[in-house]
Structure formats: structure tokens, C-alpha cells
Amino acid sequence: MSSLFHPDVAAMRAKIARLAGMLYERRLLDAAGGNLSARVGDVICMTSRYSGSKYQWNIRPDQVLVVDNTGKILEGEGGISREAKVHLKLLNEFPDGGSVIHAHAPNVLVFAALNQPIPAVLEQTQKFGPIQCVPFAPAHSQDLAENVAAAIRGQEERIKKQAAAVIMPWHGLFLIGKDLDAAYDAVERIDGQARIVIMANLMKLAGMNTLSDEQAMYQAALAAYEGVKH
Ligand SMILES: [Zn+2]
Fold it and tell me: How many helices (H) and strands (E) does the chain have?
């Protein structure tokens, strides 16, 4: 396949195709939806519509679209994703963010179905803070893009560090990372964290310590460590 674009664009399309397949294999994406995008210079590489439902995320690099910042397709096979509005809104508004992922990650979906935030409970997820739910707007709407962007505003430092994420109630996860590696890593960490919170609440039923007991102990241990160090 020939490309009119810089070789970095071809490399990014190949990487998006590979990571999308990995996310599906790892059950972080499902056949029903999800999408990945990343900025390269002044173009955006983005998975196309039906990548899950018709291709089960087994996509070729030329099925990853190259679009401009308005979503106009410049190259690639397939139609624009129905959630492209959110990707474009985030990539246009937050210059430190280089990549956006939307996923129906199964453990996050429990919190989405309950319209509840996911607390940060491990060292590796403190940097994201609690993952908050945005006000409801239907899938594929411009209002959804506005609500997601509004909830990311104020989290720019998290994007610089790794990623900022939100839950769309009754739908799924949206996050923007400083680059594609950071965004991929954040999807894994946040779904893993959601699983821990679910499992820990089941453990509470079995008489184990609660998450709030353990979070207080974590904060105390951290403060004691800092006290010894200084
Ligand atoms: Zn979706």
C-alpha cells in the first residue's frame, strides 16, 4: 500500500492495528465497539467503523484511517467511527494528549452500568485520581463529546504524566494519553483497578478488611515512610 504521508504515519497505523488486536485478545475491547486514535504531526490515525463488529479487531494497517482534524478521511479503507466526534474534540482541545482510546472494558462497564466512579486504590493508579462519570448524553452525540471534554478539563497535568480518563455512564471508558503507549497502558491499569474494587467488595462480604480500611493504612504507611525519609 502506498501512502502520501510521512513514514511515521504508516508506522502509527500499523501500531494502532496491532494494539487494537491485543486489546481485543486481552478482553479490553469488545466486538460491539471501541476505537483508538493517535496524532502524527497534523493528521490523526483512527480505527474505522465496524472494526469490532465485522473484523473482530483483526484489522490491517490500511483499515486504520488517516483523517484531518475535522474528521475528513484523507486515506484508508472504511468509514469514520461513530465516536470520532469525541476523539477529535479531545485531540483538538488538549495539545499534550497524543492518543485517545474508547473501550468497553468489562470491569469498567460494571461501574458504567451503576453510574459510579472508580476509586484509585493502588500505587500504579494514584496518578489518574478517581475515574469520574460524565453527565449522560447518548452514544455518538456531539453532547457526549462536549461532556467528555468538560470532564477532562482540569486534568491536563494527568495527561502530561500519562493519561486522563472518564466513564460514560451506561456505555464505557474514554481516555486521552500523552501518546499511544501511555493510553494503552492506562486502559489496562484502569480496568485492572475496576476489577480490584469489585473483588475487594466481594472480599468484604467474606469478612476481610474493607477497601477504606486498607486505603487508610496505605496513606498511613506512605506518611510514615515519608516521615522516616525526611
Ligand atoms: Zn462505545
Answer: 7, 8
Strand order in the sheet with 73-75: 73-75, 64-67, 43-47, 35-40, 99-103, 172-177, 163-168, 132-133
Q: How far is the CA of 43 from the centre of ligand 1 (A)?
A: 23
Domains of the chain, with CATH numbers?
Answer: 7-229 (3.40.225.10)
Q: How far is CA 206 from CA 121, 178, 200, in A?
A: 19, 40, 10
CA of residue 7 to ligand 1 center, whole Å:
30
Distance 82 CA to ligand 1 centre (A): 9
The answer to whether the beta carbons of residues 173 and 190 sit under 8 Å apart is yes
Ligand 1 centroid to residue 29 C-alpha, Å: 9
- Read off the pLDDT of residues 58-105 as tens digits, 9 standing for 90 and up: 999 999 999 999 999 999 999 999 999 999 999 999 999 999 999 999
124 CA distance to ligand 1 middle (Å)? 26
Start-to-end CA span in the chain (Å): 59
Over residues 15-22, mean pLDDT: 98
DSSP code for 85: H
Amino acid of residue 142: Q
Task: Give the span between the Cα atoms of 117 and 138, in whole angstroms.
Answer: 19
Alpha-carbon distance of 203 to 193, in angstroms, equals 15
pTM of the model: 0.93
Phi, psi of 172 (to 5 degrees): 170, -160
